[in-house]
Write a structure and sequence with these properties.
mainly alpha
Length: 101
């Protein structure tokens, strides 16, 4: 009977060890898949950041071109605008908030 018990104990121990090995192997595969997925997501996010940085740089150049003094002067002349003459600018006194009339 002792040999039978020893054999059952051995089979049980080997079964548990095999199940643990399979479980650890599956966990390792799952972790590698997650790592690859995160790497792809990170790469996509970095590409999006690079695209947006490029767009910001282009928009800053465009803004600087549109606000350049010579460009504004040319646009004002094209629209028939000129500097204000004396008397054309009026200033209004600002009322304090909550002041009664």
């Amino acid at each position: 009977m002792s040999a039978k018990v020893a054999r059952r104990t051995y089979v049980l121990a080997m079964s548990v060890a095999l199940a643990a090995a399979i479980g650890l192997g599956l966990a390792l595969v799952w972790l590698n898949i997650e790592r690859v997925n995160r790497a792809y997501a990170l790469k996509a996010t970095e590409a999006e950041l690079a695209d947006k940085s490029d767009l910001v740089a282009k928009l800053e150049v465009e803004r600087d071109n549109l606000l350049a003094p010579h460009r504004l002067r040319e646009e004002a002349e094209r629209l028939g605008l000129s500097p204000a003459r004396p008397g054309q600018i009026r200033t209004l006194a600002a009322r304090a908030r909550g002041a009664k009339e």
